């Protein structure tokens, strides 16, 4: 469902009502521990370092790629990835084994995709996984690289200091046309002609990635996404929503923050409510374009949104 920038966002579902689910959970004494305040004793740096190591170990254990399924729903949920201009650039953050990158490359043969992850092992698996899929010209359109965006930020080859300054000034030569087809021949003064970097990206995808970042680090991580996105570009977001069945399976001793949990392998997961997701992105400078959808069976709840850089 699309909403205008001025409208309030609502929860929607195919097979259950989210408000009914909320009332059921908040009135269940056995689940009360999910609602309690939480003061985390660990400093932010320790949170980040532990989280990185845990996810690196996770990817080593699941290096076969069978743990992740190709996200075929992606182009239906984010049709801009198909209708965008030829040569549009996408930054896929937390690419894992390529389950998000593959449908993007398959669905739009003119798109260029930069994919990063905090695990070199999983980047190798992603390259193998995508190469084996026989996607057209993938060797020229896929550019994987190592990066822990939440702590070190994105490399300057995505957007140099000059480009980032031009983005902040909304220079007409660096605007993104995410909603219409065009060719680069019409952009004689395009920022992508700069030899020092690729001139920023038209899309950033955060698909079940932000929830793995410690809550204290999320504002910094989102601002970093904002900094490499061209004015007019879109950040496409999908992640775990409040009261998803996965959240309710965590025991009380697995809580490491308010709505934040740690699995036995040390990986984290945060569960977003609409207000938290909206405030995080708007505080970083985005404007809300479209927000959330939840559904499927078994009371799965996801937060789904599009946030545009002015």
TrEMBL record:
Pfam families: Methyltransf_23. SUPFAM superfamilies: S-adenosyl-L-methionine-dependent methyltransferases (SSF53335). Keywords: Methyltransferase, Transferase. Gene3D superfamilies: Vaccinia Virus protein VP39. It comes from the Eukaryota. Its EC number is 2.1.1.-. One of its GO terms (biological process) is methylation. GO terms for molecular function: RNA methyltransferase activity; S-adenosylmethionine-dependent methyltransferase activity. Belongs to the methyltransferase superfamily. METL family. S-adenosyl-L-methionine-dependent methyltransferase. This is tRNA N(3)-methylcytidine methyltransferase. It comes from Durio zibethinus. The gene is LOC111296422.
